[in-house]
Design a protein that fits this description.
alpha+beta, 6 strands, 155 residues
Length: 155
């Protein structure tokens, strides 16, 4: 015959429930566990996927770079060409922008994404749909046509 199971009363269950609740509450306080990574991720907005950006533009993105830290793509709508990039970090976006601005153009900059086009007018409808800030890159040619030397390049 089997022995009687131990009798578990409220005085045993209550302390266990308190310990369980305390451990669940403290799990969110840790610095390196999954809960802290999830809450840190909640603070950073998710990047707009290339497909969502392309859909807002009315085109289909041709993915040219597909890496963990960066996705780049391109598409055309009529005569207008667009390049788009999404990033896993804000620092990655800033590095990409710093290198790209030297080529000129206009940039629509979101939290973890960038779309480029030749003119601000080409990006305004997308900004109305996705948000972001319009920025301009530097240009190699002079702004004043009277300063031009030859083929639009400064001497």
């Amino acid at each position: 015959m089997l022995p009687d199971p131990p009798h578990i009363g409220a005085r045993h269950v209550l302390p266990c429930a308190v310990v369980l609740l305390a451990s669940l509450l403290c799990a969110g306080c840790g610095g390196s566990g999954p809960a802290s990574r999830a809450s840190a991720g909640a603070a950073d907005p998710a990047p707009a996927p290339l497909d969502r950006i392309a859909e807002a533009l009315g085109c289909r993105a041709e993915v040219t770079v597909d890496a963990e830290e960066l996705r780049e793509g391109a598409c055309e709508v009529g005569p207008q060409a667009y390049r788009m990039a999404t990033f896993s970090t804000g620092a990655g976006r800033e590095t990409w922008l710093a290198e790209s601005r030297a080529y000129g153009g206009t940039y629509l900059v979101g939290d973890l994404w960038v779309v480029t086009a030749a003119t601000p007018e080409a990006l305004t409808p997308l900004r109305d749909h996705l948000g972001g800030t319009l920025e301009s890159g530097s240009v190699h040619a002079p702004h004043d046509p009277s300063e031009s030397h030859g083929a639009g390049h400064p001497m």
